[in-house]
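Here is the promised in-class demo. Please do not try to memorize the tokens; focus on the logic of going from shape to residues.
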């Protein structure tokens, strides 16, 4: 008796394992509008307002910078005297200019009196201290030397106290101007200020010119 061959059963293939990761849904991207006009009205307004705001800021910043530069330039020009101060009152400027001119004329007149006093034998300090004399020459042109000399001569003739008093012991040689140490020369006198001339006269340094 022949034995029957043994039957071999093939293994059942295992089912493929499922992926443990849950698949995600595809992302749908909304189409982007190429032109602002293609966007909704509200979106168009947001973009237009934003652009306008940026433009306004740039214009304001530029204007502010230009104004600041102009203000600085104007202040510098006023400080240097290149440009008048527009903020100043025109009437005040006129009054200030008139006062400055009057002061300059008065100083020039006093200097002319000092220079002419020596030739007329008058005391320049006494002349300037005399209210009546200064009032009489208040309208005198300081550049008119003949008129200044004539006014001093008339004042001395009317009031001898305006004459210069020579220092005691002064010699004729000294009065002639020998260049004695400490004496003021005519060239020096022409460059001196009124207050310097008055001080020199009181110190007796103008005796040789009187």
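The designed amino acids, position by position:
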């Amino acid at each position: 008796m022949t034995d029957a061959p043994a039957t071999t059963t093939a293994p059942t293939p295992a089912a493929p394992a499922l992926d443990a990761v849950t698949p995600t849904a595809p992302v749908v991207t909304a189409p982007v509008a190429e032109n602002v006009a293609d966007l909704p009205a509200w979106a168009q307004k947001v973009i237009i307002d934003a652009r306008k705001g940026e433009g306004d800021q740039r214009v304001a910043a530029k204007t502010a910078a230009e104004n600041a530069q102009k203000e600085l330039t104007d202040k510098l020009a006023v400080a240097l005297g290149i440009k008048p101060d527009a903020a100043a009152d025109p009437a005040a400027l006129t009054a200030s200019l008139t006062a400055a001119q009057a002061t300059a004329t008065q100083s020039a007149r006093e200097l002319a009196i000092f220079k002419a006093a020596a030739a007329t034998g008058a005391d320049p300090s006494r002349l300037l201290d005399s209210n009546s004399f200064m009032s009489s020459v208040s309208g005198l042109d300081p550049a008119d030397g003949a008129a200044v000399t004539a006014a001093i001569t008339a004042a001395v003739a009317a009031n001898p106290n305006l004459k210069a008093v020579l220092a005691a012991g002064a010699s004729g040689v000294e009065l002639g101007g020998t260049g004695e140490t400490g004496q003021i020369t005519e060239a020096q006198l022409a460059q001196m200020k009124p207050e310097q001339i008055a001080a020199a006269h009181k110190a007796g340094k103008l005796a040789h010119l009187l």
